[in-house]
Amino acid sequence: MTLRRSAGVLGITAMSIAMLSGCSQGEDRAGESLKLWHYENETSAMGIAWDRAIEIFEEETGVPVEFEERSFEQIRQTASQVINSDEAPDILEYNKGNATAGLLASQGLLEPLDGAVEEYGWDSKLAESLQTTSRYDEDGVMGSGSWYGIPTYGEFTMMYYNTEMLDEYGLEVPETVEELESVMQAFVDEGVTPLAQAASEYPLGQLWYQLALTQADQQWVNDFQIYENPVDFEGPELAYASETLDEWLDDGYISEDSTGLTAEDAGTAFINGTYPMFFSGSWWYGRFLEEVDQDWETALFPNEGMSPGSSGNLWVVPEASQNKDLAYEFIDITLRAEIQALMGNSGGVPVAAEEADITDEESLALVENFNTLLDRDGLAFYPDWPTPTFYDDLNAGLQGLVNGGLDPDAMNAQIAEDYESGIPQD
């Protein structure tokens, strides 16, 4: 992983950046600006790091940044229309995967970044396993073709535990799925719903996928994500996922109220101590450091295999951007050692930092868990990536499961049809 690169490589990179930024300072950029969108909370690790990157960019270029914070859902729902207009930003954060960045790339809405990657050497900063989501072929399928996005952080899903609540009931962080179910049952016996969840947005879909991954191998992931072979939605992987969630709902481990809840609802419920557990992504980590008053800790989902995760979301440059070169300069700043270390010490997962620069003990533990998944080849991407509509399709199926409108077999049959209809046809 790039985190283990030598200081010598970072030194050379820093010298190159200094030369590049020195050139940019000499250019006449009067009247120019960089229009930037992203959807990171200002207290998140990425928000903190990118705020500093904006300051450096303005100091070094003399060009102001016009930053607009847009929500994940705002960008997801409107990006294809907005970035194909004169309202397009010069650079924005966008979700990675076939159904998102890949779709826009296949439609010609994103600028290929191959030239900038070569000029700035970004490929040498990103571990090969993190480059998969940066490159898309002509059909928008990730893993090959031109570069259309650059990640500056990694991410993965994990369990968040309120350890004060565990201690209150004499419970310990579980190490197996069986132990996890025993701990959840102990909370239910005390009248406490254990898992914060949300079915109207991504968290429940990621838990569903995580359960499938406990029964899956890498070939199954390749089949599901990049269509190497047909996926059997009645097979052991997805049958186990849906049946287990159905059992957990029946047992009271997940509230039926989650059918209408958002990711923000679930996350704030964990922050407030309403639920002792939350399964979600590393993007919550920095915020929890700031906002959770009780003791808490994280752990990988209790299995020895894969988990949802990948590179982080991507910096992409719309084809309609008026300031592409400025966008490339900003991307390069976000990959500098200074910004990467700030991200890591704020609770993020940097992709181009020295581990020695991560001085916060809790943040280093987060990075080490990410390294564990990399060493396992355990980043299995996300369940909504395979088709442009599967995010909504999966959420609709899971809402049906939670509210009792669908049983596991019916849910899997419904999303199988959705999945098949969305796969690119030769």
From TrEMBL:
InterPro entries: Bact_solute-bd_prot1 (IPR050490), SBP (IPR006059)
Pfam families cross-referenced by the UniProt entry: SBP_bac_8
Secretion signal span: none
Superkingdom of source: Bacteria
Name under which the protein is recorded: Raffinose/stachyose/melibiose transport system substrate-binding protein
Protein species of origin: Nesterenkonia halotolerans
Taxonomic lineage of the native organism: Bacteria, Bacillati, Actinomycetota, Actinomycetes, Micrococcales
